[in-house]
Amino acid sequence: MAIGVLALVGTRKGLFMLRGDDARRTWHAEGPLLDGWGVYHATVDARDGTVYAAANHLVYGPTIQFSADGGKTWQRSKKLSLPEWSGLTVNAAWHIEPGLPRDPGTLYLGADPGVLFRSDDHGRTWEPNLGILEHPTRDRWYPGAGGLCLHSIQVDPRDRRRMYVGITAAGSFRTDDGGQTWMPVNKNVAVDHLPEMYPEVGQCVHKLLLHPARPERLWQQGHFGVYRSDDCGDSWDRLDGNGLPTSFGFPIMIDPKDPDAAFVIPEKSPEYHYCPDGQFAVYRTRDGGQTWQQMSDGLPRPAWAAVLREASAFDADSLYFGTQSGSFFALADGTWIEAVRHLPPILSVEVTQWFT
Amino acid sequence: MVHVIVPSVLAAQAEGQQRFDVAAETETVGDALRALPVADLLFNERGEWNGYLNVYVDGTDTRERGGPACPLTGAREIRVIAMVAGG
Predict the structure, then answer these.
(1) Which residue stretches of chain A are H helix?
(2) Nearest beta carbon to residue B13 from set A58, A76, A80
(3) In angstroms, how far apart are the furthest CA atoms of chain A?
(4) Statement: A2-355 belongs to CATH 2.60.40.1510
(5) Which of A13, A56, A60 to mutate to test the interface with B (most CBs of B within 10 A)?
């Protein structure tokens, strides 16, 4: 039976497993696992309990590592590689997304340089998606400070042929044919740093999420704004203002029970990656982004924290995030609990139920 | 036998084994490293040594002797060292 929540916290120096009680108030940290590796993302495949980690090392390169025993022992996937004709090599592994429950063994991986991989053997081997690799707009994609990273992968739970990816800085893309072809879906998404404000591609999407209960609804936090789409990305409405102190930030969270809810953590500006004026807060909307309210009870003030794009998570009961200063926060009855502090810089957070 | 010693991060990727033996007749240091269970972490996808990797044969930097092509004739020890970098 489930007795609490397990948070997988990827850091610059390894993976930590944080176990919280059902109230999200008492936490126990275990780690570091994969000691010395930068864990850009780690997740539990709910279909079989396997833990997957996108683990990168300055010297030893990008890897996918997986554990069938809760992190006690690990195996590495076969080395990630791109076709030689592409002229590209894999710079970093960014995000692992398990496939739908009816596709056991299928997983997706986003990586730098703006590439998507698929595995159909539980992550042992990975094949690049040629539709993304050979995308006709690739010459208009530009890397952000973290590289040309494909960091968001969302599969429509109603139709496995429809998927979305978010790439910094290329924008959001959708496939309706199982990954054969990908169309840019960036209409009305601003790019303030290019001569053309609304180009077809080049958007710096920071995080893209699909609402599982209303899959045509997408949310994104971008470099220049918070957006919502109600038509599978065909068009976007900009939602910042109306209570948000800035339009800039990296993570975005949703409430799986409420398609009108979203949560962001604003930062000062593209030049200054920390919360504005020392006012560390999560902002919540419950009306589709028309209004935003501050959620700061329990957060330290003043603080100049920064939360990276992969460093937040949500489940049906709570929200979670980790800071670059190594603090992990969970929401308990409307108050943020600093569950663990002094971890290495936190790169990623995922949560799942913790079973005995 | 030629002994190969790897750093602790690599040893952790080889079930804790930090020291490996390769056959004395192995021709080059590249051949020796390709025989290790962590070879995929030493070479990039094009088969080149990863940057930031230092390899010494009996105390001599292999960069001075052809890198992966460095001959192993008479060698006793290969030491793999991650370059000192970052904070």
Answers:
(1) 130-133
(2) A76
(3) 56
(4) no
(5) A60
